[in-house]
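>> received
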Amino acid sequence: MKFRKALLALLVLVLLAVPAVAGANPFAGMNVRVVIGSTSTAGDSYLIAETVSRHLAKALGANMKVDAVGAAVALDAMQTSRPDGKTIMMFHDMTYLGVSFKAYDDIYKLENMEVGPRVAQNPGAAWAAYLDAPYNTMAEIPEYLKANPEAKVRMACEAGGVSHIGFIAFWEWVESKYGKDVADRIVVIVGGSTSDKIQLLIDRNADVIFADYTSLLDYTKVGDKKIAMKFVGLLDNVEGIDVPSYADQGITLADGSEFRFSKDFLIYLPKNFPADMVKALDEGMKAVSEDPQFKADMAKMSYRGGYLDSAAAKKFIYQKRDSLQGLIDSAPSLDDLVM
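>> returned
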């Protein structure tokens, strides 16, 4: 009898230790490499992937490690890795924007990988200038250029990424409202990682840079004017943050409609990824998204969960990609705007 009671007690402990994924868990005990399309550990790509992976690893009973390999390597990994769960990708909209902008070959299209659940959103894609810049908002930049015919404003962004879409939306608005002369004096400095763009601004090799609000926030609180920055605009509004968005500043699309853009972070997987593993990711991420500690961790960085299961996430991201194609097609080539 004592043996049976001990056995039952042991069984209860085992059941309590099972992760929050229903049924057999194909990820249990597995080492999972999470590639991201950035080489920086200071930007939102790493911060979100690290936070999600830390919580998701517990739900799946797996060991998950973020590998900041950059966009080219991360996208290639989705084409060359085995669909066995050992390599997955967490990344934002550059996943499809790189192809839409023709910065990456069609082999890297969404159609050539599997779409997993949406894990997070970042509405805080931001433009920042050095503290003494002669403008305080994005909308003031063309006014400054209009009043100073010899001046230029150099904006650091990354070809084929979210900063690219934010730049062309702004540039086309300036051209439509202020004319080509003013717009042509807004030029591009091609920057890479967040740290690279921060250094460009500190060295005054750029006047405005694009990065994540959270990753630049500390630079807006320092007293040293050499490195001090100020935010001049967000692509979308962030609750509790008093920085004007494009919409707040009247920066619109060509048809006069609002432009808002939050980064959507999804899990992407190699083609033919096993259905039971996709289901486990869905169920694991659903459990994570409901965890108060996860919500608090995200909120501290001004991010939000925004969970969608893999089917809903696929429909969402395909529609988002297609909705931006007209803007991309009408935009001038970044090569023509590079200083």
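>> Residues 125-261 form a domain with the D-Maltodextrin-Binding Protein; domain 2 fold (CATH 3.40.190.10).
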